[in-house]
User: Fold these one by one.
Assistant:
Number 1:
Amino acid sequence: MSPTSPEIKAQVSVSRLRCINCGATADRAEQNFRCANCGDLFEVFYPGWETSRGLRAAGHDADSLKQIWQERKTSLAPADTSGVWRFRELLPSLAHGHEPITLREGNTPLYDLPRCAHAAGMQSLQAKHQGMNPTASFKDTGMTTAASFARQEGFRWVACASTGNTSASMAAYAARGGMRSLVLIPEGKISWGKLSQSLDYGAITCQLRTDFDGCVKVLNELVRRKPIYLLNSVNPYRLEGQKTAAIELLEQLEWQPPDHLIVPGGNLGNSSALGKALLEMKELGLISRLPKLSVIQAEGANPFYRSIREHGGKKLLPMQAETLATAIRIGNPASWKKALRVIQATEGTVEQVSEVEIALAKAEIGSDGVGCEPASAVTLAGLKKLVKQGFVKSGESVVLILTGHVLKDPEFTLQFHRGDLFTGSAHETSAKTLKPQQRAPLVLDATVDAVIETLERFDSKG
Ligand code: F0G
């Protein structure tokens, strides 16, 4: 079946936009994706889901949705092999004749992390690895939807401000969709891995002498002046695609919700998207209860943590962000109100973790043979704190959302194992505790004896 065949079109959902603040509704947004009335963000909603028989996504009840999604696993149609568009009843639909731009995103693994469970004081622990997407971060799940809408609307140029992963993902999807892409990234503050991806995928890549929040400011002005489609996570179509990670997760768990979902927080689009999916799945009867969704930030980039802990979520004070987890080095998160709603609705919480705690957690995730980028490791570091506080009980089920691949930031990993990640920084003394995790490469004479001697030394240490 082709993705635009009448059968598939009949299965999709009619969507509209609604402002999260004033409730104004619209079919199309301005180029900055802000409400014309009050300037706040839009979210996608599905008026057609309400039927006389209760909520039905594209006319289907929960059991038939589960069955349709299961059956598509054996289909070879591009929209079915995508781990995002496979769930298209819960996504905005493209107009007739428009194909999704897909790199077969989603379809990411759920891993057991026994060593990490032990380190956190848990009986078991799982991680959904969104770094196993085509461009190696969770951004692909949202980019496939938003880039497809950009092309449908006839845009020639797409653009984003990024700490690296959004730009890599956008550049790839723009290239696949025959569009040009413009990337604004903070100079010197993103890993070479991510920058090199955008270059290879053909983006025009500008390193601005500012931070991520400064790049966002420039971009917002730019889209007002030029016909450029904005692909940051203020774009609600991004979040609809990102929602599917939670749907896929619940399918992998045979629709038994975990007790907790733990997510890194930067611009707060991802936690908002995953939470929206949980709420929609509950409303549609796909799950019977909500997991608690908790957001973890780095101490040096913790505006959301402070907003909740110090101001009861009533306001968010932007800050100058600083952390080695560069992907979440964000001081003025755009989607904080959406994320707040999710935390409140699911009865989750927010926590912050130190640089040394992030580095340790990253190595521990590596020691389970999985690995992730530094920003993703805040989840394990945060879980340890939540267990100590009693918010998470050792026998509960927890899923960490790992957002980026271990190869995204090799400089961090190498410096960690060489022991010089924190040299000259305020964390130098506390970083001494990391020594047992460090495995610097060894330079040896090219003899078998030298290698055997090394092997025996490590073997005797257990
Ligand atoms: N983890 C990784 C690996 C990221 O790249 C990001 C954000 C986050 C977590 C935080 O997600 O912003 O939705 O709360 N990266 C952005 C970028 C902002 O430009 O790539 P968030």
Note: The longest strand covers residues 180-186.
Number 2:
Amino acid sequence: MPQDLLPEALTRDLALANRILYDQGVVDAMGHASVRHPEHPELFLLSANRAPGLVRRRDIYCYRQDGSPVDTEGPRPYLERFIHAEIYRSRPDVQAVVHSHSPNVIPFACTHTALRPLFHMSGFLGSGSAHFDIRDEAGDTDMLIRNSTLGRSLASALGAQSCVLMRGHGSTVVGDSLPQAIYRAIYTEINARLQLAASGLGEAQFLNQTEARLASEANDTQIPRSWALWVQRLGATDVDE
Ligand code: MN
């Protein structure tokens, strides 16, 4: 598939989504966001190997669910593209995926402590985060999801949930749209920060499952408002260059 057949508006939104994740402190030079191809659901769009804060439309390529790039002449892909590939394969409902190493999530990942919705903005956390330990699957590794087998294990740990924490590494969130996945990545990090703060004060009362569901449904109607603000904060960008 030539690059000029990529859906233009969605490719631009994905480039902006990468910039937003950097601007909001969810990613640094590492981490990535992807979106399922709207006309070819067996494919997904992901930047080639580049810091998210620098991603432009022309850095975005199509990948298959085995992690192979459709354009074999393209630049070097991300090592961890198998995270995205295997989640799209196992979760037909998922339209977008964000993988990050956002810092406040790490203490929860390494203690297998569930992230739970501390306030309405993180209602999508429902009854708690899923957890994945690469050592259980592959023994001692460099912690990276470098192949389809590890990607499948991670997707299996995610199950039907929206957020999986990865011991010694970071987290991955999914959404039914690109803005929803970005929203969830941002508020996973914020909820982790707040949950750490609350843990020093006493026993936290989390949203129960009904509250979490109702809050999540209400928030989803407001995501365009957040998206507009996130894009505005970026100011002028070179995403189209
Ligand atoms: Mn990673």
Note: The chain has a mean pLDDT of 96.
